[in-house]
Write a structure and sequence with these properties.
Length: about 375
């Protein structure tokens, strides 16, 4: 009796197994047929879908061939203003600094520079191709998912452009905006506002100007090498002539013109507008319209011995078109619209919104240095 029961159970198991194998095989054949109908697979390409918001039936598809935008430069060079103006465009989303992107790029750069480390990675099968694929995936996930979907996505992490050449390699359709500002103004801003940056001694104008020179030279050289993929934008000229430079910029990015980019302050905190961080140091400045208030604040603040040695300390000033001996400098005359904005700023018409008030308290507390 028991033997017959075992025999029946064995037969039942064989029948179930046969049916399962049949259906799995049939399903596999159907999948293979569908893949063939869609065409050959795109080997080596990253392709993902994101569903957000209320309209879950319209997925947002992203991949390494997207026309990404990267904004960079030495901190305190107008990168936040630039991304806020772009964020005002209804088809563009930049968002706040991610902070992790320059860190992971610096790590990748460190691996590549170390011959011994590269040899060990290659030996383990972690080749350049593997790392590039992983970097594409990681950076895309951060850029895409730290904000809302948009036709054009951009990233603003100032020192990310130290890796401009590498970013252009792994994102072939990306374009880059290098913000350039008079190094004396950038350094005075970081020192007076206590913006901690790794490697910069905020107690020394000489040290900070030396580090500024090194950083901007690295980024500017790569920008020139990228040719048609990188546009250098001087902060002073953007502030003095915003419409001229935003039209030039949007044409470079192949993005349709929209008047909203000249009124970013009206879209702060609004849906589809400009999202600001409570902890970024530039937030209390970009709530204001484009104005000339900060252009020459550095005049009279830099030690005499540093001013005397300026051409030697920061030779990039002259290379970028600034007179290292001019004190005060002559950056040019502002457009009438900018003059009107500046008058309104001096009247105190623009105050920090309530939802950003927490920033002033957080600024008093110690911060970790920005990655360099």
């Amino acid at each position: 009796m028991i033997g017959k029961l075992k025999q029946n159970l064995l037969v039942a198991c064989l029948v179930i197994s046969s049916v399962t194998v049949f259906y799995l095989g049939r399903h596999a054949m159907e999948c293979h047929q569908r893949i063939e109908e869609r065409g050959p697979p795109l080997l080596g390409s990253l392709h993902a879908t994101l569903r957000t918001g209320n309209n879950l039936s319209s997925p947002f598809i992203y991949n390494k061939d997207m026309p990404l935008i990267f904004i960079g430069g030495v901190p305190r060079s107008g990168t936040t203003l630039m991304r806020a103006m772009l964020d005002a465009h209804p088809e563009v989303r930049c968002g706040e600094e991610t902070r992790v992107i320059p860190r992971i790029l610096a790590m990748k750069q460190m691996w590549s520079r170390s011959g011994r480390e590269k040899m060990r990675l290659d030996e383990a099968g972690v080749t350049d191709e593997v790392l590039d694929s992983a970097m594409q995936a990681f950076l895309l996930e951060i850029i895409v998912k730290h904000g809302e979907p948009a036709t054009y996505l951009c990233n603003k992490d100032p020192f990310a452009l130290k890796s401009l050449t590498y970013l252009a390699k792994i994102f072939p359709r990306a374009k880059f905006i290098l913000m350039i500002r008079d190094g004396r103004a950038s350094v005075h801003s970081m020192i007076s506002r206590k913006v901690t940056i790794a490697g910069f001694d905020l107690n020394s104008y000489r040290d900070c100007l030396t580090k500024w020179n090194r950083a901007i030279e690295t980024m500017y050289t790569q920008c020139l090498e990228a040719a048609d993929k990188c546009l250098p934008v001087h902060y002073e000229q953007l502030v003095l002539h915003p419409e001229k430079w935003m039209r030039t910029l949007l044409k470079f990015l192949n993005i349709p013109w929209n008047e909203a980019v000249l009124h970013h302050e009206e879209l702060i905190g609004k849906a589809g507008g400009v999202s600001l961080s409570k902890v970024e140091r530039s937030t209390d400045q970009v709530i204001k319209p484009v104005n000339v208030e900060a252009l020459s604040k550095w005049v009279g603040k830099i030690p005499v011995d540093v001013l005397r040695d300026m051409p030697v300390i920061a030779p990039m000033l002259a290379r970028l078109g600034y007179d290292p001996h001019a004190n005060p400098p002559n950056y040019g005359r502002p457009d009438p619209r900018v003059l009107d904005n500046t008058r309104r700023v001096f009247k105190g018409e623009f105050q920090l919104p309530d939802f950003l008030k927490e920033q002033s308290q957080l600024q008093k507390s110690s911060e970790k240095p920005n990655p360099s």
